[in-house]
Every structure is written in C-alpha cells, then in structure tokens.
Design goal:
The protein is of the alpha/beta class. It has 11 helices and 20 strands. The strands form 3 sheets. Strands 2-1-20-17-16-15-3-18-19 form a 9-stranded mixed β-sheet. It has an 8-stranded parallel β-barrel with strand order 4-5-6-7-8-9-10-11, surrounded by 4 helices. Strands 12-13-14 form a 3-stranded mixed β-sheet. The protein is globular and about 75 Å long. Pfam families: Glyco_hydro_30, Glyco_hydro_30C.
Length: 457
C-alpha cells in the first residue's frame, strides 16, 4: 500500500440471525472480499454522502475485539479431530488469513452455555463449608479440555488477552444453596471467602500459563434465573471489589477489576453508587457492559462522569449490517472492546442450557459429522473490524453519516494506518466519499454490506 492508495475489503449480510444457518452453509455475495484499490486524490465537489475523518482528534484506545471460549464452544471443538480444531483456532486469531481476534472471554466455573452439569471450583455437599478453600480445584476445567484449548490458542497467538467472568459463587456461599438464582450470604466472612475463591481461580489459570488481564465480579448481577446466576447489589459488589483488591495486592497480582457486566439500561443506577464512593473509585479499574436493554449512549455519559474508568462491551451477539452498525455505535460511545457471546453451536443448536433459543454463531458444527462445520456471514462481518483495527488503536473523529446512506466509525492504528469501517444497511448500493487531511477517496458500497477502508495517515 502506497501513500496514495486505499485498500478495501467488503462483506455482506445474508438472512441475518435466521435459524436456516443451523441447516447448512450458504454463500453471501461478499465474504471479506478484497476489492480493487482506490486512489487518494485532491478534494473535489461531490453530491455523494461525505464522511469527514480527523485523525488528530482521538478518543479511547482499543483493548481488542473477540469472542468467548465458554464450555459449549470448547465441548464442540473437543469433538473434532486435532487438525480441524486447530484450523478453527487459526481462523479466530490469524490477522492475515483469519478474523484476527485478540480478546477472549473465559468463564470462572460454568455458565449457561455448557454441555455439562453446572459446577464451580469448590462444590460441596449440602451443609458443608470451606472458607479456607482447601478443596478448591480447577480440575474440571482441565478434564473438559478448557485449559488445553486455551493453551492451544495461545501457541498460535501469544499476544492474546483473556478476561474472565463468574456466573455464580459456589452454592454453599449462597442464600438458597444453589448455583441457580439466590445471592451471596450476608457477612464479611462470605465476601472474603468469595474474594479468596476468585483470587485462587486467577492464580490457578496463571499456573497453567494463562494470564488473566481482567475479571468481572459477577455476570449480570441484577439477574436471577434458572441457570448459574447471583443477585449482587452495588454495595455488595463494592465490598467484593475491595476484598478482591486486597487479595490481589497481598499476592502480587495485577489482574484488573471491572464492575457491573450487565445492561446499558441499569448502568447508571448500579455504577454510580460504587464509583461515587472513595474506596470504590480506588479499587475499580473499568466498567463492563452488555447490550440487551438500553442505549449505547449511556457509555458516553459514563465516560464523561468517570473518564478514568475505561468501558468494555463484554457480551452481545449481533447479526447483519444492523449488528455492524451497532458495533460502530459502541465504539463511537467509548467502548474500548467488543466481545461476541458463544463462538460455535452445532446444527441442533447445542449444547447449551440457556432458557431461550440462541441465534446462529460464527461457526456451526454438523451435529452428525463433528469434523464438518461452516461459517456464517457474522464471521466475516466481525472480521471487517477485528482484522483491521489493531490492538492499541485509537478511535478518531469521523462524522457518523446516516442509516439512509452509510454510517461509519474510524480508527488510527499503532502502525500509522487509518481504518474506516463503513456500513450500508439499505437495499441499494451507496456512493460516498471520505475527506481526510486534505485528500479524499470515493467509493460505492454494495447493498446490505460492510466495507473496511485502510490507508496511510
């Protein structure tokens, strides 16, 4: 790529979110398809939609983009031959020939997306307790190939970043004695025991050569439901964060603590009581949010209120060009990351224990022939971001555009390149131009497609 060229890749949607993707593969018009290079030219008048990009006006720095390695995905991977499993891992992490993910979400114990009976790392008989964690063990994660799969991913992508989330404390710590529903029992001894449990989980992974960059304190703390879950009030989460910080400091650990890990709609009411408290503000490193209710604009409000606390979009599944535009809105509202939820279900939509019916995942495995699998368009649509927005990139100023024509978000990469992800949600091709630093380029984006445009700043 010369200083006068713009490299272009395009992917298109096809039946986004439809169950037909569990039936077999289908070919979209564009699948991370390289296009002829465009030319940067002197500016000239144009009637096309115009995107103005200002690389010197920077916003948040990106930690990364990725997906989850929950037990459902690993269970399905484990049914494959080693070569097929390795091929999928390469496609997830390879920036040249794959999607280029660098950020993966792990679960501390089991989540609802698992083929196994629900478990934690300290499951006891009813009436028993273990405050000193003498019976703590991650052996189930070893037996279920979770550790081995993560290690295999690390070999091919040593700079990968992992963060972890728990769905429930051990049942003996909870008010109802169950991994489902309930809350953490009252009393400092339970707060401290849970902090010890989480510290030991992070240490156990580190002993396996898997460093955990950050952890959330409770997945969806306002949800009690019939899979691993635990209600946790803001006050209790602040107490847990403080106790966990003490545990980490006492053991020389650098893992960061992200609070909340739930929906935009409830973010203010949950986060403000923690960060408006002096101790809470001190022990918390970042904010984790999900997008199942509410508006991404809440993240801009939180950034203005707490500018020293980075924001991470830790869970959502998105489909089609509408999903690609939703991602653009995350980043335009200060999200430093995005993680998709669940990487591979099989053609029978298995195996999971969620209470609903999931939509199609990036990879779908044939339930009859486990070595056979296919990709959905979401793989390529996510790659339009992940392959070209490098870790450490900064979001830069760009005019958003319109859903009636094209929308976008733009970044400046550590290598000096600029990347604009442009989305066309309409049923017709859309011409547009980009004006940047005294130059312009003109392009036409096909209907229902996403284009990534990369050039030298």
């Amino acid at each position: 790529m010369t200083n006068h060229e713009v490299e272009v890749w395009i992917s298109s949607e096809l039946d986004p979110g439809r169950s037909r993707w569990f039936e077999g593969p289908h070919a979209p018009d564009f699948a991370l398809s390289p296009q002829p290079k465009l030319e940067l030219t002197p500016p000239s008048p144009s009637t096309a939609s115009t995107i103005i990009v200002k690389p010197d006006h920077t916003y948040q720095q990106m930690l990364g983009i990725g997906t989850s390695l929950e037990e459902t995905t690993i269970h399905n991977l484990s049914k494959m031959d080693a070569d097929q499993r390795a091929a999928i891992i390469r496609q997830l992490t390879d920036r040249e020939n794959g999607i280029g993910f660098n950020l993966f979400r792990l679960t501390i114990g089991t989540s609802d997306f698992t083929a196994e009976p629900f478990y934690t790392y300290n499951d006891l008989e009813e009436g028993e307790t273990d405050f000193e964690m003498k019976r703590f063990s991650i052996q189930k994660d070893i037996d279920l190939n979770i550790i081995a799969t993560v290690q295999e991913l690390q070999k091919g992508s040593p700079d990968t970043v992992f963060f972890a989330s728990p769905w429930s404390p051990p049942a003996w710590m909870k008010t109802n004695g169950s991994l489902k529903r309930g809350s953490l029992k009252e009393g400092a001894e339970y707060t401290e025991a849970l902090a010890r449990y989480y510290r030991m989980a992070i240490q156990a992974y580190e002993q396996q050569g898997i460093p955990i960059y950050a952890m959330t304190l409770q997945n969806e703390p306002l949800l009690e439901i019939d899979y691993p879950s635990c209600y946790m009030s803001p006050a209790r989460q602040k107490e847990l964060a403080a106790a966990l910080r003490r545990e980490f400091e006492a053991h020389g650990m650098k893992t960061k603590l992200w609070i909340f890990d739930h929906n935009f709609h409830d973010a203010w009411d949950y986060i403000a009581p923690i960060l408006n408290d002096e101790e809470g503000r001190t022990v918390v490193d970042g904010l984790a949010l999900h997008d199942y209710e509410g508006s991404p604009a809440i993240m801009s409000e939180l950034h203005a209120a707490y500018p020293d606390k980075p924001i991470y979009l830790t869970e959502r599944a998105l489909w089609g060009t509408a999903g690609a535009d939703r991602m653009a809105q995350y980043f335009r509202n200060y999200a430093c990351s995005y993680n998709s939820w669940v990487t591979m279900l099989d053609s029978e939509i298995g195996t999971h224990q969620w209470v609903g019916t999931p939509g199609p995942t990036m990879f779908v495995q044939d339930a009859v022939e486990p070595n056979r699998y296919w990709k959905t368009p979401e793989y390529d649509l996510l790659a339009q971001y992940a392959r070209f927005v490098q870790p450490g990139a900064y979001r830069i100023e760009s005019t958003y555009g319109s859903t009636d024509t094209v929308t976008n978000v733009a970044f400046r990469n550590p290598d000096g390149s600029l990347a604009a992800v442009v989305i066309n949600q309409t049923d017709s091709e859309q011409p547009f131009r980009v004006l940047c630093e005294g130059k312009q380029f003109a392009a036409v984006l096909p209907a229902r497609a996403v284009g990534t445009y990369v050039w030298r700043g």
